[in-house]
Structures are given as structure tokens and as C-alpha cells.
Amino acid sequence: MNLMHFQIEERLILRHALKTSKVQLLSCLLISAAWATPADGMEPGFSALFDGQTLNGWWGASTEDPRQWMALPPEEFQKKHDASLEDIRQHWRAENGELVNDGSGLYATTEKNYGDIELVVDYKTVPLADSGIYLKGCPQVQIWDYTEKAKFSLGADKGSGGLWNNSPGAPGKDPLVLADKPFGEWNHFRVRQLGSRTTVLFNDKLVVDNAILENYFNRKLPIPPVGPIQLQTHGGEIRWRNLAVREIPTDEANKLLRGTDPAGFEPIFNGKDFDGWAGEVDCMKVVDGAIVWQRGKGGTPYTKAEYTNFVVRLEFKLPPGGNNGLAIRYPGSGDTAYVGMCEVQVLDDNYEKATGDKIDPRQAHGSAYGMVAAARGYQRPIGAWNYEEVTVIGPKIKVELNGTVILDCDLSTVTEFMHNGAHPGKDRTSGHFGLAGHDDPVMFRNLSIKRLE
To answer: CB under 8 Å to 65, separation ≥6 — which residues?
Structure first.
């Protein structure tokens, strides 16, 4: 991790690490008594979202599914964009280096869309006001009056900073601590979002710990891979200042998402040879500590160990049109997509463009091949490493790619199959873990498994 942005208190890290298993130091490294900020106020790598003098770079949108307007043809989107500017000028203004809203109107929306980011912003508001920060166009990091008794039943007494639009009881919905400052004082947010995973520091206190921001507009889909930052305002004046964002590079994002493997994880590839593997290991070679699939060779090499319930963590890199797979509960012979519990597909998200071949949605990356389709569009660009976690518990499989859950299904409920082909192995309760390759030079590294029995 790049520690340039943080000053770490060791005792705070150790104390917090005792309370978290999945995130470990991931969120702890965001916690600090003081932020290292240069004299000009802008941290290294950050870009200002507000120039302090104009509304340049902002347009107006409301609470609406960003996927819909991001899918508009350019000319239709431009009309929507331009039509919003009169409302923005009516309700928003630049004043003394602050971005001020009168409590009404459309939400200030960045013209640029963002993926993995670190966002910093200060705000000051008034009693009874209600606001928030939309990430990738989705609500929201909550801001409200923590003293308004009429909203205590909604959670206002717990304070600001939570992902309030998450489902009841979901991680992140309520802030971990009450951290609001009294009215009249400035509050400070630092938000990091990697995929859907969101961590919020509010006035230097951790209030959301690596929780998934749910898609308010469609709970069956994850939030979009990219989208705007929006400042939601209603009910009272709110002032914003020091708005800045840092786009997190993919290698750093992968390291942050993975952190250090918690206790119980064991490497299943040593980075040197295929000790502990069986089957067609000649399909693979080792290059710089990574598995590289051999061109022109297919097969399913697998771990000698068998697993029942488990989590596997790995990184992969695809060539254009690359095709491979993860063998789940593989019996040791046959086509794992059918005789194993399933094959979790590893495939270029742009496979159709790269090859000209059309695929069934149940063939897309992360899908339980031929049975359940995964959400698409969450891969890194070709040539970059992707980080993936696959959790298998009983008949259920969850696939999280680069911080976003793209598949969460129960294979025991599947009754329709691609091409009406049976999957007799889908109800297997144990088996080997393996790689189901074709002839593309797909790469894997840092594979580890934790048993969940």
C-alpha cells in the first residue's frame, strides 16, 4: 500500500485488526490521527473537483438510475445535460471558495465518471437539512441532522456517514460511530470506493468499513462500474469545500482489496512449480511467479487436495478474447462444467468484439457456466491484473470481481440450462479445485484457499 497519504498509529491498527477478519489492515490503513497534507492543501495525486470560483465541471441530475442516462446516445445526453444547467445556476453558487446550495434543485453532478477512487470533501450544513454523496450516481453516503428527533426512527440519531440506502441490517447502512460535529462547524469526509466496496472516514473516525454499496435502483444488479460523484441536497442550505478526488490505479486497488490473507488461507500455487497439482499440468508453465497457459493445450489441472466449502482468492490476466475457467468441486476427470459442481467462467468481457463469436449470457466471465449469468463490465482493461474471490458454501456460489459481487446464486434452484444440456455434477458436495483452460495464454497468480468447514 502507498503510505504517502497516511500517518498510522500502530496501536490503533492493532486494536482494530482484532475486530475484523476480512478487511484486516485494509481499512485500518485509512485510520489516522492526522493526514499528511502539503502546504497548498492538495494531497499528492488528487485533483480538484471544484475550482472555488465557478460551476465548471458540474451539471444537474436527480435521484435517477445512472445506467439509463449513461446509455443515452451522445446527442440525447447532451440535451439532458444542457437542460439541467439553468436549475444548477438557480440553486448553486460559488462563494468565497465554497460550493453552496440553497437546499433545493437538482444535485450537482460531476461531468466526469469515476471508477476506483479516494474522495475528500468538507461540508457545513444547518439544522433539519438532509443531504448525501452519491457514488457512481448511486445513493448514498448519508448526511443529516443527527439531532432531529422526527428522524430518529430512520437512524438520524446514529449520525452521518452511513450507506443509508443499503438494505436494513446490511453492513454499512448505519455508521459505526456518531462522528458529526455541531452545527456551524465543518465536517470532513474521506471516502474510498473500490468496485462496490466502500470505506468512509468521517471526521477521522471509521464509520463504514469496506461495505458493499448496494444498487438502490435495482437490488439484483451491482452498482455501475463507473459513474459520477453527486452532491445531493434538500431541506436546507449546505456548503461544500476542498472537494478533491484521486483515481486509484488498478495495481493499488487490487492490493487494497486483497490486503493480507487472513488466518486459514493457504497458498495452492507456490510460484515455482506445480507441486500439489495433478491432471494436465503440462498445459501450464511458470513465468515470473505466475501460471501462464500454454497455447494450443487444453485440460483441467487440479489440486490434489479436495474441498467442500471454501473461499478461493486469486488474480488473473487475460489476453484479448482469452478463455479459461475455475473448476469447482471437480471429480478429477471429465468436463468440469458438467461433471463438477460447475465451471466459474474466466473470459474476456469483450470476448464477442475480440473474436466475433456471440455468447450466451451464462458464458460470460464469472458465470456458473451454462447455468447462471454473472453481471458484466467489471473487469480491468486487457493487460491488467484482476482480483477475484469465489466463495462456495453448499449449493451456493458467490463471485466477487475487483470489489463487486457479479454472481451470487444457488445452483440447487437451477432448472434451465444452456442448450438444454444437463449438468449432472451441479449437486456435488466436494471435489478438487482446478483451472479449466483452452489454448489462450491466460495468466493466474497468488492463488490461495481457505476451508470453511
So the answer is: 137, 217, 218
Report d(CA 40, CA 299) in Å as an integer: 57
Q: What number does CATH give the domain 3-254?
A: 2.60.120.560
The CATH architecture of the domain made up of 265-451 is Sandwich (2.60)
Nearest to 202 by CA among 143, 275, 272, 266: 143
Query: Element (H or E) spanning 337, and its range?
Result: helix 336-339
Q: What is the pLDDT of residues 279-317, one digit of tens each?
A: 999 999 999 999 999 988 889 999 999 999 999 999 999
pTM: 0.91
Ranges of CATH 2.60.120.560 domains, the chain: 3-254, 265-451
- Cα 221 → chain centroid: 13
Reduce the DSSP state of residue 76 to 3 states and report it: helix
Max intra-chain CA distance, the chain: 70
In total, the chain counts a number of residues equal to 453
In whole angstroms, what is the distance from residue 429 CA to residue 418 CA?
Answer: 22
Reference 207, options 30, 411, 22; nearest CA is 30
Give every CB contact of residue 14 below 8 A, 6+ residues apart in sequence.
none
Q: Assign 340 to helix, strand or coil.
A: coil
Which pLDDT tens digit goes with each residue over 357-388?
A: 999 999 999 999 999 999 999 999 999 999 99
